[in-house]
Amino acid sequence: QLRYSVPEDREPGFSVGDLAKDLGVDLRSLAARNLRLVSEGGQQHFQVDLATGVLLLDSRLDRETLCGQNPACSLHLQLVMENPLQLHRVEVDVLDVNDNAPQFPKPEVVLEITEVANPGTRLPLEVAEDPDMGSNSISTYELSPSAHFALSINTRGDGVKMPEIVLEKALDREKVAVHHLTLTALDGGSPIRSGTARVIIHVLDANDNPPVCDPPISKVLLEENVPVGTLVTKLNVTDLDEGPNGDVEYSFKTSNNAPGKFMKLFSLDPRTGEIRTKAPLDYEESSAYEIAVRARDKGSPAMEGHCHLRVELIDINDNSPEIVLTSLSSPVQEDATPGTVIALIGVKDSDSGDNGQVHLQVAKELPFKLVSSFKEHFSLVTNGPLDREKASGYNITVKAVDSGSPQRATQKTFYLRIADVNDNAPNFSSPFDTAHIQENSLPGTSVFSVSAFDPDEGSNARLSYSILDNGMQDIPISTYFRIDQDNGTIYTVRALDYEQDKVFQVPVEVKDAGSPMLSSTAVVHVFILDENDNAPIVVYPSVPKGSAFHQTIPALAEPGYLVTKIVAVDADSGHNAWLSYQLQETAEALPFQVERRSGEIRVSQALRESEDPYRLVVEVRDNGTPSLSASVVIVISPEENSIQDFAKSLDLPKSSPKDTNLTLYLIISLVSISLVSCVMFAVVVVR
């Protein structure tokens, strides 16, 4: 806080003070820091020369216009600099110079005095006015020489000098009826200035007792804002005369303290001497009023007395504090360190004493606090970490409360936006996902879509997806799959073969576009679903394509005799690999049958007596959709001298629907348990 002084008569351009030197600021940084001057009164009287850093007078000052009768006259400025943001308070005292001469309210004063007045009688005179203050105000009065009258000067409670004419020698109206005098008011300036008024005193007969005010000078304490019509006081005036000479009438007299202004605020009953308010009183406008009352009787000549009343107002808490937001830095980065200045706030209260003592507060649950910079000025700073993902902005309410009774409060709300920084990595909805796709699907088939979320905003939340080749497969995973970097959809690059690879682990990485870039990964397990794309292969008996397998049996083989067994395999899995065996129908019924599940060929009835061989076509068919099949030709030749192997003679099994269904249920259960076990094993290995 800087303080300078300047006389009121200086011309524009006058150097008031060296701001750069007093603040310790480099001249070259003034323009870069955007130094600007703000006047608290609204009118700009000063300017700053950015080249020299000097505070200059912008317009001629008139102390009397700016401050009136206040003994102290100061202009308050605020000096704001940015980068970093700083606020300095500058007070400039306007010094009074003797540029006003004393002046009487009237150029001619007419007084009356009875000829029977005793020596020592006093005649009050109008007080001269001088807008200047201190030693430049009125210093003394002088009266032109007179044989009957002299000048007496009294000092009032507020320091104002009051001239009175004192009768020193008895009067004789018959000798001199009118006395002409000159009253001169002198100030204490250099050079001395003066003002004069003509004083005409008429000497009257008779009424020789003036009204007397008891006490002649009094003081009344009155609260501001009392209702209009409130009784201030009743003057106590006595006149020892009787009849019209003792009948007193009251009237106001003007004074030098805002002449005539009190007449707009107070009323005087001319008969009773009661003084009442006739307009609201405001302590902040004026804390005291000087009231002069003339008490005149109705004698001939009329005599008058003078009462002086000082009304001092008691301040009440009738003004709410005012909050001024000087500067606000919005938005603020969410990684701002505690203590970062957010705003500069000023408060003021027009009341005085405790009524004008203001306390500023902000809600405790907010991550901000107030720090006092200097009197009535505060800085709002961060008091904890900020997180845009939890709160993208704050409605900050600052409350100002005074110390009056009852307290008065004002609050001001402003919005602070939090700017995002890239402090959150994107996260997948699940670190592990499972997808299924049919083998032999066309390249470009959609497999699965991964999704990630980033709580940041803007470029910090713009995501891109990619597949990582981490060596988990023998061949780079990118040769099997690709991913759309914008939406995370995984597509096949080529057709997949269940018989070659049954499951793939596809590691996916997501990155944001922030700085620094953040990322996370997830694994998608892609299970290949089998298709019936492999026909059964007969492995026994193994015969070239187009050839037949020759088998001999005893000519007397009995029903149930095991001729041979067909063994086939299918590269598919599940129900696509479930095989069934059957004989192709022929025109002639054959004495053989094939077991549907095992592929065993047995004699079903007695053989005919013939040496011709039997030709059987055994078809092996899987359970897929569509069903695929293979066949083998068996040529069975009965021989008479062949010995029957009774170990191969068994009773033909009598199949029933119940046995067939039970076998099917067992197969389904085993396959299901195997698949679940494989999936669980793969998940455990990945984790």
From TrEMBL:
This is PCDGM protein. GO terms for cellular component: plasma membrane. Residues 5-104, 105-213, 214-323, 324-428, 429-538, 545-655 form the Cadherin domain. One of its GO terms (biological process) is homophilic cell adhesion via plasma membrane adhesion molecules. Keywords: Calcium, Cell adhesion, Cell membrane, Glycoprotein, Membrane, Repeat, Signal, Transmembrane, Transmembrane helix. It comes from the Eukaryota. Its main location: membrane. Pfam families: Cadherin (PF00028), Cadherin_2 (PF08266). The chain crosses the membrane at residues 662-686. GO terms for molecular function: calcium ion binding. It is found in: Cell membrane. InterPro entries: Cadherin-like_dom, Cadherin-like_sf, Cadherin_CS, Cadherin_N, Protocadherin/Cadherin-CA. PROSITE patterns: CADHERIN_1, CADHERIN_2. SUPFAM superfamilies: Cadherin-like (SSF49313). SMART domains: CA. It is a single-pass type I membrane protein. The keyword rRNA processing does not apply. Potential calcium-dependent cell-adhesion protein. May be involved in the establishment and maintenance of specific neuronal connections in the brain. It comes from Heliornis fulica (sungrebe).
